[in-house]
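Hi all, a correction to my earlier message: I attached the wrong file for Unplaced genomic scaffold CY34scaffold_35, whole genome shotgun sequence. Here's the right sequence:
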Amino acid sequence: MFKNGDIIAIEKLLNIKGHNGYSPCRSCEIKGVRKISTQGTNYYTPLKTPRRENQTRQSYHPLNLPLRTHEGFVSVLEELDATVTKRQRERIAKEHGVKGEPSLRRVNSIDYANCAPWEWMHLFLENIIPQLVDLWTGRYKMLDVGSEDYELAPHIWEEIGAETAAAVNKIPAAFVRVLGNIAVDKSSFTAEAWSFWFIHIAPIVLRNRFPRLKYYTHMCKLISLMKTSIKLEITTQEINSLEQGFAEWVREFER
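and the right structure:
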């Protein structure tokens, strides 16, 4: 399961609250916020705390997150073991995102904070890229664009879909399988399809399509970071550049 990067399976194995919790991350102890004005129950983890919601939760810097440690996990487990009431246990579990003993607690060589690194395919191809497309087409959880202007007009997205379907007709199958019209039905897009489309096709079909250049530039930054991160050989300097680059990309995304 660690090799395949199944997020839900790893959450079950570590016995943590997971991606919908107040403290959702298995790598750090960032806290979530919810939309108080509409009594929202879902927690989200922006770096910058929304002001208009009168939130008390602190803002975070992506290069200075409160990282989890194995000792921290063990300390929470000891707190849970020492509780007397169910309410106490629920409060501790919510605050720290740890529900109880991991499945492999008796295996002393496992570091709970570092045993399950984040996996490239699920992180980018099954989460970030499809969500970006939903944002660009006005289909992401009923959110509007706010003060920005990044949505693609329906007729432009239809053109992009047709160009996507036509783009791979003469590319050998060893490189990519047939891609459908992404504007009509993207349910057939596997992780492999998302990878090829985003890295190789999107820079062409989305050029000059956004209302403002900065959205296209922001997309290309992510493509460059992704391509560097899957190189067969990578230098220490490139690792440092990736760390800085991803942090800057996320902060720019929130802005």
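Sorry for the mix-up. The chain has two domains: 7-96, 120-254.
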